[in-house]
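User: Heavy metal translocating P-type ATPase, Pseudidiomarina terrestris:
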Amino acid sequence: MATELPPAPDGHCFHCLQPLPDDGGYDVIVAGQSRAVCCYGCQAVAQTINDQNLLHFYQFRDTSNPLQIPLLPEELQQLEAYDQDELQDQFTQTSDSGLKSTTLSVEGMTCAACAWLIEQQLQRQPGVQKAQVNATTERVLISWLPEQIKLSSLLQHIAGLGYRALPFQAATQEQDFKRRRRYFIRRIGIAGLATMQVMMIAIALYFGMVDELDQSMRQFFWWISLLFATPVLLYSAQPFYMSALRSLQARQLNMDVPVSLALLSAYGASAYATFTNHGEVYFESVSMFTFLLLVGRYLELLARQRAVATAANLVKLLPATAQREGPNGELEAVAVHKLQPGDIVRVLPGQTLPADGELVSEQAEINESMLTGESVPVSRQQNETVYAGTLNQTQPIRIAVQATQQNTVMAKIAAMQDQALANKPKLAVQAERLASQFVKQLLFLAAATFLVWSFIDPEEAFWVTLAVLVATCPCALALAAPTAVTGVIHQLNKQGILLRNTDAIEALRDCRTLIVDKTGTLTSGKFSFASQTYLSEGYSKAGINALASALEKHSEHPLAEPFKSLSSANEKAPERVLLDNVQVKMGAGIEAIWTAGTSQQPVRIGHPRYIAEWHPEAVTLAPANVILATADEVLACFQVTDTLRDDVPATLATLRTWNYEIIMLTGDSQANAERVAQQLQISNFKAQCLPEDKLAFVKAQQQHGPVFMVGDGINDGPVLAQADVSMTFGQAADLARQAADSVAMRNDFAAITTFIASTRKSRRILKQNISWALLYNIGIIPIAVLGLVTPYIAAIGMSLSSLLVLANSLRLYRSDSSATDSR
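Assistant: Predicted structure for Heavy metal translocating P-type ATPase:
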């Protein structure tokens, strides 16, 4: 029946109560009736209020003074606050193109059907570029164009589906988890108490302990059972009904559909038998089934929380305030979200750094375990980058702010994990589809069972059908994939590895080719000059050094680091170099217009092949991996080298025992590549590679099988994206971190074997989960259809199968994966 709402005065807008225009205005359906409104704005707001079931706004407003009536209910006003730029800066990221991204936390989402429904609703909205929903973490990753749609509108669309969505705040996640835990504990408690009472009565009835009592006493026990089972059905089982309704709304059946059908049917039939004093009652099955299912959901919640807590705890550790220096050096306490790039903040020993920035102090000891998992403090020198969330250990330090809030490395780590949890490996997607198809087949099977048993034994037909619904419910199959995936993400996080793309779990299975970059991957990335050769007679060494240093200051490549201090290291008063039109060519070098005296000329520094475009003989100048030249002559050749990482030889040896072929690609000179290849016994390598050379090589290798790529530079971004599986390091360039499937935050090369071993273990457990779930469900079907299983035994069997799958997945939460696992 439609809700009765007080009407607006004749000739006035139903929403704002102002006079209608002469043409009568517009119509909107509110509470099942057509209402007249004055404009499109009132029409849109009234429709939103109706869709989100906020009709109390109209029911209880005082229409005697229209000017005092707010035009929006309080709930919608609160959502509109999230459109404010100052507030959005605290939880959104904005790309160079103006695209905004954030993570939303959604209440009431319980399964893949819920996720599908929300995802479809959001993707249909104009301006939404991407929407990824994860039922496991109850979060939505969304990107939108703010000039086309507002965030509050997106939140309202989700609310219209019956869910409550708000920007995810890691600081409140623990509170949300406690709330959800209490939600389940209350329902488990009621179901558990009722189950104990009803089971005592059921046992007495089943085993003839009350045979000497008359029929009226037997019915009295039934009434007592009905009294205890009713709150279980109406309160404890609520989550299953809500999930089933949303599943039907999404037209994607989930396991809660047969669960709800079984509960309501068993309760209804038992209640009917109690009222009529004829038939059988199974109140104990209703109570036990609900109790065991809730216990399984609760344990799943605990497992899920462990998986997502690691990255969330990082952001939660950020301080709320910071000590900012004023123009005269005075300190003022300000909220962290008000810090701006360029601000100087002071951090005392034992305090957490509030933002990413450049160390202004000469030296600092920083505990970066929050980012890398490594508890040993690291020494940072002046001008080096330090990160929000890390801990200052020994002395007061000063930091020049570079990034705050959602732009910090820590926030990006949390976003990477959210993205990983939102993505599902192909095997997990297949398991979800299989579970959905299984539910459909189960409902057909139950209908056929009822029809057949109606001819065999009509009195038993309903209870056999009920046992089929309960026993074959694919709860274990639905739990198989998400619990395994969240488990491996949790384990990798504990070992300092962020998994961005969960498809890597399956893709690694067939990988037997590992392609590695040299600089910064096999080597430490800390460069120094091995040789410097000056070839020009027209310029002094000091002038050449100053020119090389000025050019390389525009580069972020690790090879550029020793050049940046080249002029100051060799000259008391370095020459001033004037450069115009500086262009950085990724993976090649730098070109600019150099003003020397009264003349201007183009100048380049970089890879020999880049210089060879001007001077073909440059590729023969050895040993040299960096060359400086003008358009007229080669000025100097530099040989820049670095040292191997300590853990590289042992890691490569392990990979060889796993039958991996090791291939090295590098843009460095042939001489440097040969030296490193000989040290590491790598027979297959390719030197002097430009980014397009690396990309072409990887594509060619993929013709023979999947490829695992490891690199860390800007020029490695395209090949990391192209490879079937890829890994980079926490200190890598932003482009590399965005392109890679996984990020080793500890910057250890040995993370490769840890990554492979962990994904292999998770893949085995995932397959074990699916195999067991299928084995149970397929095996129990003939037993249940033949009527050999009672409903309460079916409830126990189904619950035990789900708990077994969950327990198997919890093995992933133990950090016992070792690099010796070669299977």
